[in-house]
């Protein structure tokens, strides 16, 4: 008998697709207009990778260990490095002369400051490339002491050592 072609259900997809095409055309026209006027900064990029890695949004909650690791890892200008890699292994963007980079103390890998700061902001404590700990063995004791002091627990229980299980 065949399929009846006069139902409204067949018109709705065509109408929907036509509407999407018109909206796409309007978006393209607005993008072109903004580009011609030099206002492309007000347009959202088509994909997340088209933005440069700076500035980086760091999560609002920052752990104490993340703050201490950021203090320990040195920040240098890319142009000051001798024989550096061509690109950051996190974002895959090439380094430029004035970029701030962090050279990890244990493994000596180099990343954009913002890329490593974002990594550390998610409470990661190892190199994103080789998983070597950020804190060298000889500094681990001092790091743990500073972390313990920053937690405020010694101050809270300082007068009551028996409260945390210590006997005098």
UniProtKB/TrEMBL annotation:
Gene3D superfamilies: Zinc/RING finger domain, C3HC4 (zinc finger). Residues 88-131 form the RING-type domain. GO terms for molecular function: ubiquitin protein ligase activity; zinc ion binding. InterPro entries: Znf_RING, Znf_RING/FYVE/PHD. Pfam families: zf-RING_2. Keywords: Metal-binding, Zinc, Zinc-finger. One of its GO terms (biological process) is protein ubiquitination. This is RING-type domain-containing protein.
